[in-house]
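I hope you will forgive my troubling you with a question about protein structure. The full record is reproduced below for your convenience:

——
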Amino acid sequence: MKVLGIMGSPRRQGNTELLLDKAMEGAVEAGAEVEKVLVSKLKISPCLEIYACLKDGTCAIKDDMQLLYKKLLEADHIIFASPIFFYGITSQAKAVIDRCQALWVRRHVLGMGKEDNRVRRGAFVSVGATQGKKLFDGAVLTVKYFFDAVGVKYSGDLLVRGVDKKGQIEEHPAALEDAFRLGRELVRGK
């Protein structure tokens, strides 16, 4: 069983990545093989809305997204992680999601991948600096649609408010434990 962790924060070893790493540790404890992709290290162009994907589900833009498509399709489960920037996910993470239009076309227009009978689940991990009541609303909705596009059921999230300074999540051991549990339960199907 493979779990793909997508780290959408441009800041290395920040709060989002620390939570993602804990979730990945939980997945490993449950018996999964894990891989973490650092979106900020990839060269991913934004979607150009040229709809070349309507032909055969393949994006015409040749960049690092081509490798990520393969990983997204092979993963049994996905943990998507992004901090909140202006009440949404980071631009790096959003570029990945926008480029998954090709996978949405494969699935919902061309009917490809319907024979894949795996029960694939996904979880969202996010950290936001403010205490805003609707802080995560837009990001959760975006990630839910992303998971649908790649054939993954949104099965849970860990959303932490009021954390901003690099490494500040370490002052919240309960959140780190929750992340570990999220990864473990994602693999176990709970």
About this structure: The chain has a mean pLDDT of 95. The chain has one domain: 2-188.
